[in-house]
Design goal:
This is Protein CDI. By secondary structure, the chain is of the alpha/beta class. Helices cover about 25% and strands about 15% of the residues. The chain is built from eight helices and eleven strands. Helix 1 packs across helix 8. The longest helix has 25 residues. The radius of gyration is 20 Å and the shape is globular. The chain starts with about 20 loop residues before the first strand and ends with a helix.
Amino acid sequence: MTPPIPAVHPNGKLPPPSEEPFKIFIGYDPCEDLAFEVCRHSLLKRSTIPVDVIPIRQPDLRRDGLYWRDRGPTESTEFSFTRFLTPYLAGFTGWAMFVDCDFLYTADIKELTALIDDRYAVMCVKHEYVPKESTKMDGAVQTVYPRKNWSSMVLYNCGHPKNRVLTPDLVSSQTGAYLHRFMWLDDEEIGEIPFVWNYLVGHNRVDEKDREGTYPRAVHYTMGGPWFDGWKDCEFAELWVGEMEEYLKERQKKKKTAEAVV
């Protein structure tokens, strides 16, 4: 039997192979709804590859029986622990990313996925970060622990055998130290990516002598962002505000279009 002839574009070239969207899970907290929307907007706006942006909402996980631990006093957001369900939610296949909602992307996520290395179970920015403040965001307690902020943006090799331990049972019962320090992995299974993909406002710095190499591809407002009254003048606040205004204009435009159709 003669195989079917593949469709050809008018320019005579074969169509590109189908590409599965890259899954991006964003931690969601109702107290930071606008931050989530702006983070998602910044990702989608700049991405040149197919992406599937998925909020991790704790109430939905509880409803579906996938998360049941009580919220502790050190959990500053609803996704403090649910973030570790990323490989499970991705079906333990392929690579996926988790990111806190208090990020703003300034670059194409394709540049980050180009750094993926299948030798590793996870990849992240290996910060050496000890916050000076005792509180963050809207008064939430600031906790200090080894590998702090490593888990705030993680590329997960979801099919890696070691990551299969990250089930609802384990995430709902293990300690914060075990999860946030990646203690289910050996050190050599944790790959490193440049700090510009998790640029901590107030900690990292842009080197004017190497602006290209040090300017953030992803700004992380880890202490608090412009959506909180106390952080309206933080570093890179104007970037976030500009992105927010653009998002709100697009949302209003879509709303008017939908109303016109009705």
